């Protein structure tokens, strides 16, 4: 599904990702953990095509197609979905209108018929039930006045409607209380199928109590420094990140 | 960051799609303005005697006035002697029915999406089409006539209903009101006239479509709309012009009279040629629009302004009668080098009068957008209420938005509220849309339309769709 080779990227001339390698197979859930400032969010933004970040080297293949030359909207239409850490508010743009436009763009790209208003509303009803989302949120402007939890839940809801091949969840757990966290995690689990994949970026282990990853990576100083099974997450929870970092770079001072 | 800003800027570099020139034979005067020209216009239009006096008085007054320079717009001095003050399509013969409109002219209006053919009409819209200085055709006259509604060109009205014209002409915008209104009064050659009799609800939207075609011609039209007691009417106005690299002058006057219990809804979609990317050419749009509302009468202005190199207009309402209502809903877009100084005037005279102002400015490219609004509550206006909301939306980093509210209250029972906001379409908003599969162009359209929704809601249905498309086109650019 996703193959990243020696990816180097930075912002304003400052390198952040340094020779990052990652491989996600179809049907897998990967967790990327790591200390603050290690480049987790940068990775998510670079994959989605945010132009603030400059890619200085390496390659990214998505289902065999080179991703880095594609425009952000084409990546989305090809099936990459980013659940944002801080979803932006778009006043005046109705959530339903927005999501219908997005879905129909993706459907067009997949060679499917566009949905009309009735079909779309039926789909929305079904998905909002699945995720226990208050449907009245959809009558409001995109994310406007939503609480932190509502915003995150809305991201997962959009994901449910758009049915991406690869979902990247950027710290979707941050700012959620335990109940909201459970609902979001359950949503992700319900949406997981053998033909799609997810990359879950998180700072804390607690999200992984609910979303069980196939592979856990530790991202530090711009590269993947350790990869293991789900038990790695538990170990990180117990021992913190320092022991991993010391192994990688024994002389580095802790920051 | 930089590259997204560039995307927005590329995006707003649009092309004007109504810029074609039609080859229509015209009967034009030589450029220049003097008493002789005024007299010749009067003669050519075959108007009654009182109009000549009125015109000459206005002209002589105009000579004593100076062009206003207080608006927040900048342009080189205008040489009023360089303009042509009368140009009309040469009729091949006298028209007896709509079918006889010159095919060239008909084709031009078809190209603009305005059908002069009643069979192929927009559902329920009667159109008066004005080319340069003269009215070309008015549709649905007979059907309206059955209800006693008079809808025709100004020139026709002044001949067939001189008493009505004489009674109301200049009562809301006097001939000496301001520099441009005085110029208009002296040289205006046509326009639309409408009278809705007592108690009649006009059964269809009335519409005037203005087109400037002749090079170097100024367009000076005058619209006079009278809604007699208890009547109601909805009126639409649309404007386009060819692309020329000299600046064309447009100085129009619109007078609305809503007598007791009457209501007038006046909607404008103005898309005069805005000039090119570097500010060359485009229409100078200096317009005076005002309405007078009687007891329990209501006047509502809705405007979507996307064209003109320079816009100077303040559609206002004089709330004369007790319990009268004035409304102003506006979207003004400035792109490239366009400059707009626009807003409204609400003059509260009667008791319990209310006015609402919703102004949405959009600036893109190097556009400069100013809102200028006056709310005046006279001593007599007990319990007057005003609510004003002025929002500005910026696209890119080289445009400007300004707000100049003037509030003058002489009655302590008045309640006047003013709210203002400025926002910018953020790169992160666009990226969010992109990440969901929506292109930058669609994202900007979506955000701009969302921002203007409050105003579009006040436009008649078909016009609202048109306005939305127009905003899209005006902001369209080279983003693939």
Characteristic terms for this protein:
heterodimer; A: 255 residues; alpha/beta; Rossmann fold; six-stranded mixed β-sheet; four-stranded antiparallel β-sheet; 8 helices; 12 strands; globular; B: 480 residues; eleven-stranded mixed β-sheet; ten-stranded mixed β-sheet; 11 helices; 23 strands; disordered N terminus
Secondary structure: elements and pairs:
The complex is a heterodimer of chains A (255) and B (480).
Chain A lengths: L1 E10 L2 E11 L4 E5 L6 H9 L4 E10 L2 E2 L5 H7 L1 E4 L6 E5 H15 L7 H14 L10 E2 L5 H15 L3 E5 L7 H14 L5 E6 L12 E6 L2 E6 L1 H10 L2 H7 L7
Parallel strand pairs in A: 3-10, 3-11, 6-9, 9-10
Antiparallel strand pairs in A: 1-2, 1-4, 4-5, 7-8, 11-12
Chain B lengths: L1 H10 L14 E3 L6 H11 L3 H16 L22 E3 L13 H9 L13 E7 L2 E5 L2 H5 L4 E4 H7 L1 H7 L10 H9 L4 E5 L8 E7 L10 E6 L4 E9 L6 E4 L2 E6 L4 E8 L11 E12 L4 E8 L4 E4 L2 E4 L5 E10 L4 E10 L5 E10 L4 E10 L7 E10 L5 E10 L5 E10 L2 H9 L4 H17 L4 H14 L6
Parallel strand pairs in B: 3-7, 6-8, 7-9, 8-11, 9-12, 10-13, 11-13, 12-14, 13-15, 13-16, 14-17, 15-18, 16-18, 17-19, 18-20, 19-21, 20-22, 21-23
Antiparallel strand pairs in B: 1-2, 3-4, 5-6
Explained architecture:
- The complex is a heterodimer of chains A (255) and B (480).
- Chain A is of the alpha/beta class.
- Chain A has a single domain, classed as P-loop containing nucleotide triphosphate hydrolases (Rossmann fold).
- Chain A is built from eight helices and twelve strands.
- In chain A, the strands form three sheets. A six-stranded mixed sheet of chain A has the order 6-9-10-3-11-12, with helices on both faces. In chain A, strands 2-1-4-5 form a four-stranded antiparallel sheet. A two-stranded antiparallel sheet of chain A has the order 7-8.
- In chain A, helix 5 runs parallel beside helix 6.
- Chain B is of the alpha/beta class and 480 residues long.
- Chain B has one domain.
- Chain B has helices spanning 2-11, 35-45, 49-64, 103-111, 141-145, 154-160, 162-168, 179-187, 427-435, 440-456, 461-474, and strands at residues 26-28, 87-89, 125-131, 134-138, 150-153, 192-196, 205-211, 222-227, 232-240, 247-250, 253-258, 263-270, 282-293, 298-305, 310-313, 316-319, 325-334, 339-348, 354-363, 368-377, 385-394, 400-409, 415-424.
- In chain B, strands 5, 6, 8, 10, 11, 13, 15, 16, 18, 20 and 22 form an eleven-stranded mixed sheet that branches. Chain B has a ten-stranded mixed sheet with strand order 4-3-7-9-12-14-17-19-21-23, covered by helices on one side. A two-stranded antiparallel sheet of chain B has the order 1-2.
- In chain B, helix 2 packs antiparallel against helix 3.
- The longest helix of chain B is centred in the C-terminal third of the chain and has 17 residues, at 440-456.
- Chain B starts with a helix and ends in a 6-residue tail after the last helix.
- Residues 1-13 and 118-123 of chain B have low confidence and may be disordered.
- Classes of the chains: A alpha/beta (255), B alpha/beta (480).
């Amino acid at each position: 599904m996703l193959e990243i080779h020696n990816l180097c990227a930075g912002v304003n001339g400052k390198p952040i990702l340094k020779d990052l390698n990652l491989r996600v197979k179809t049907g897998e859930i990967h967790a990327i953990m790591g200390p603050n400032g290690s480049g987790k969010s940068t990775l998510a933004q670079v994959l989605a095509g945010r132009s603030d970040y400059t890619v200085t080297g390496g390659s990214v293949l998505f289902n065999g197609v080179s991703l880095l030359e594609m425009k952000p909207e084409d990546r989305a239409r090809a099936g990459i979905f980013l659940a944002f850490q801080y979803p932006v508010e778009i006043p005046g743009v109705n959530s339903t209108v927005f999501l219908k436009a997005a879905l129909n763009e993706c459907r067009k790209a997949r060679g499917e018929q566009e949905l009309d208003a009735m079909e779309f509303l039926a789909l929305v009803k079904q998905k909002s039930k699945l995720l226990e989302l208050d449907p009245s949120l959809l009558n409001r402007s995109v994310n406007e006045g939503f609480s932190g939890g509502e915003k995150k839940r809305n991201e997962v809801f959009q994901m449910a409607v758009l049915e991406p091949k690869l979902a990247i969840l950027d710290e979707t757990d941050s700012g959620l209380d335990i109940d909201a966290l459970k609902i979001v995690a359950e949503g992700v689990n319900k949406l997981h199928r053998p033909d799609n994949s997810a990359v879950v970026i998180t700072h804390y282990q607690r999200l992984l109590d609910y979303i069980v990853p196939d592979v856990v990576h530790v991202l530090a100083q711009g590269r993947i420094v350790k990869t293991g099974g789900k038990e790695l997450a538990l170990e990180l929870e117990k021992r913190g990140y320092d022991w991993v970092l010391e192994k990688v770079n024994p002389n580095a001072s802790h920051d | 960051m930089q590259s997204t800003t560039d995307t927005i800027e590329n995006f707003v570099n649009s092309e004007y799609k109504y810029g074609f020139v039609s080859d229509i034979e015209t009967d034009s005067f030589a450029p220049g303005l003097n008493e002789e020209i005024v007299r010749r216009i009067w003669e050519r239009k075959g108007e009654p005697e009182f109009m000549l006096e009125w015109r000459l008085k206005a002209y002589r007054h105009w000579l004593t006035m100076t062009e206003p320079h207080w608006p927040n717009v900048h342009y080189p001095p205008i040489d009023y002697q360089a303009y042509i003050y009368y140009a009309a399509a040469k009729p091949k013969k006298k028209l007896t029915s709509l079918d006889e409109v010159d095919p060239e002219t008909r084709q031009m209006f078809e190209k603009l999406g305005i059908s002069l053919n009643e069979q192929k009409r927009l559902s329920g819209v009667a159109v008066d089409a004005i080319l340069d200085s003269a009215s070309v055709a008015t549709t649905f006259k007979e059907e309206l006539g059955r209800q006693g509604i008079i809808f025709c060109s100004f020139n026709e009205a002044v001949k067939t209903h001189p008493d009505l014209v004489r009674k109301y002409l200049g009562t809301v915008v006097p001939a000496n009101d301001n520099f441009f209104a005085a110029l208009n009064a002296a040289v205006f050659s046509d326009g639309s006239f409408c009278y809705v009799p007592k108690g009649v609800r006009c059964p269809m939207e009335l519409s005037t479509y203005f087109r400037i075609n002749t090079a170097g011609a100024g367009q000076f039209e005058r619209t006079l709309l009278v809604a007699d007691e208890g009547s109601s009417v909805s009126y639409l106005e649309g404007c386009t012009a060819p692309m020329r690299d000299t600046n064309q002058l447009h100085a129009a006057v619109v007078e609305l009279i809503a007598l007791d219990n009457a209501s007038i809804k006046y909607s404008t979609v103005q898309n005069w040629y805005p000039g090119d990317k570097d500010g060359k050419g485009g229409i100078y749009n200096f317009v005076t629009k005002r309405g007078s509302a009687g007891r329990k009468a209501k006047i509502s202005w809705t405007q979507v302004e996307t064209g003109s190199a320079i816009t100077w207009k303040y559609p206002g309402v004089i709330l004369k009668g007790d319990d009268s209502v004035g409304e102003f809903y506006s979207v003004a877009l400035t792109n490239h080098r366009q400059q707009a100084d626009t807003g409204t005037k609400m003059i509260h005279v009667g008791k319990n009068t209310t006015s609402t102002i919703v102004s949405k400015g959009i600036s893109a490219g190097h556009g400069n957008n100013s809102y200028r609004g006056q709310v005046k509550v006279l001593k007599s206006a007990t319990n007057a209420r005003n609510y004003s909301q002025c929002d500005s939306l910026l696209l890119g980093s080289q445009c400007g938005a300004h707000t100049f509210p003037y509030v003058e209250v002489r009655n302590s029972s008045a309640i006047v509220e003013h709210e203002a906001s400025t926002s910018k379409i953020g790169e992160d908003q666009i990226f969010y849309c992109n990440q969901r599969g929506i292109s930058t162009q669609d994202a900007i359209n979506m955000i701009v339309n969302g921002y203007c929704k409050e105003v579009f809601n006040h436009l008649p249905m078909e016009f609202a769709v048109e306005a939305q498309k127009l905003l899209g086109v005006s902001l369209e650019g080279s983003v693939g």
